[in-house]
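Appendix B. Extra example for self-study. Work through it before the problem class; the solution is given directly after the inputs so you can check yourself.
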Amino acid sequence: MRFDFNDEQAEIKDTAKQFLASRFKPDVVRELAESSRYDDALWSEVSELGWPGIAIDEQFGGQGLGMVELIVLCEELGFACAPLPFLANAAAGIAIESAGSDAQKEKYLPGVASGEGRGAIGDDAVVIDAEGAEVIVLFGADGPRLVPAAGASLEPLDLIDQTRRYSRLTAGDGEPLEGDAESASNRMIVAVAAELVGIGQRAMDMAVEYAKEREQFGRPIGAYQGVSHACAKMLYDVEEARSLTYAAAWAADAEPESLPLAAAMAKARASEAAWDVCKASIQVHGGIGFTWEHDLHFLLKRARADAQLFGTAGQHKERVATLAGLG
Amino acid sequence: MDLTLNESEAAFRDEVRSWLEANHPGPEPHGDEAAFAFRREWQRKMHEAGWAGISWPKEYGGRGATLIEQAIFSSEMARADVPSPANILGLVMGGPVIMAHGTEEQKERWLEPILSAEEIWCQGFSEPESGSDLASLKTKAVKVDGGWKATGQKVWTTFAHESKWCMLVARTDTEVAKHKGLTYFICDMEQEGVEIRPLVQITGESEFNEVFFQEAFIPDENLVGGEGNGWMVAITTLMNERAGLGGGAAVAVSRDLAALIEVVKERGLDQDPQIRAKIADLLIGCEALRLGGMRAMTAQMKTGIPGPEGSIGKWEWATLNQSLTELACDVLGPEGLERGTPWTYRMLRSRANSIEGGTTEVMKNIIAERVLQLPRLR
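Solution. Structure tokens for the complete assembly:
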């Protein structure tokens, strides 16, 4: 028994953290979010590092690593609040690799893995990162299908989370994904849970830093238990979400039979944890945390969007109850 | 990352499991005294098989088990639903303190009777006016010929009425800062200067006592870790207490949750959306507690000491156990109000979970100050 990253995974995490901190400084995130766009050069750079294909099999041009390596990146991208089409592309890759036919895999996975022919993901209501993508993986009412982006018609959506591009598919023919969509979907939600862990960690770090600096009544506000205990609860929330998410990623690679329950637990907890931490962080910051000028709202809004993505906390709790014996 | 047991760990689990199956003492008898005698006998049986001192080094009569083996052992104890050994405070606190800070004579005198449950230990730390603020304690020990005389009052003293020895922290110097004037003694409970009064809890039972020391004599050779070092010695025992309590907690809560799920089904409430959501929260909380324990253990194997992260586990456990037992009594309806039933007992007993072994507020302070490095108010 050993519950931590191996040396290689720890190195991926460190490298990703440093790289993202240097490329996605707060003013860059703000500039991209406010202008509702991505920086293609940054996506190319990320692609050269091999991130889009990290968990895709080597025969399709990926690195052939596992879910644990993928969620290490997702967590750091959440921490950086990076405006990048990473998550949708990764989720599309998981869906096609797990549920696609050989022909579908050969057609789309190399582009997804290299980052040059991106995948988008969504359902009948919302599609993420379809703009500029090669193919859309749609988990719609008629079952999962692949919609070539070239022939699709999309209506952009103006959502509160401006760090990603959202739209609705209004027309577009697709071919069904006939394989194991259930397993794909469980892996996708673990990736989102990991992003939520990163968002929560960042919002907590900001609150703790602020609580050490900001002084009122002659001492740092972090010395008051009304504030310090709120910060302690942030750690409780983030660490619970982290334990469950890492364990679900491990299960995806090593113990697939326990993945459905582990994934539902991780997504339910991470959805609530990230939102609670972002809310509490704004509260700790006081008035400044409520301003557009402060960066916290980008995290709060992305946490809100991620919490809904691929099932809310309530929906996943219902799955937990079912899977754990209440039928 | 590997969340399963490796071959040797699995073999150890199987060994523990089959021993517990073969030696299960059966249901605990009713009544405090009968239950205590039962646990004392149970510990003797554990000791004969070499399990009582599972975490103790071999040179002191223990098993020298690794951290993972200790965790497996606690989990299997909870899984088999066997009682704790009678001398739990001696095993997780008294023994480790003597091993860490005691002289060779003290080790020779005290360790073996702790393991065999021949001599029971209790802990004299908390006082009526010194709970979370332990260092403010007032019980005094005054130097006399050949030893010390202790006077003062301790409270929440578990098993005091069964104990031979008390781990007594007393003030030996009133002139210095409050943390510096304390000394750690092992006080003989079987003497005239010690009076024990049971405290009746909200459950109606008496696990705890008040203990009054009136010039109780403690010979010089019963001082541990040197005069004035009591705070440092006491802190070691508290870390051990939290680590010791944590082991089987996740398994015990999971076991109770499984029982609750059966009650929910029997009552036909398994499709009630509110109950389902609450059960899901508990399932998620139990799993987070279990996994958090594994992460903390992995970290401890690297660094060698239990970190302050254990404070999250203590807090999680208290919250979970309280929510779980409340939900059970909700599900039981009027039956959940009846005196003396297992679930109402657990519901009432769980109120202490967020107080004993460090209140939840103290756990939050530890997390804020030692993990998040926030400034201290004091």
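Self-check: Residues 181-326 of chain A form a domain with the Butyryl-CoA Dehydrogenase, subunit A; domain 3 fold (CATH 1.20.140.10). If your reasoning did not lead you there, revisit section 3.
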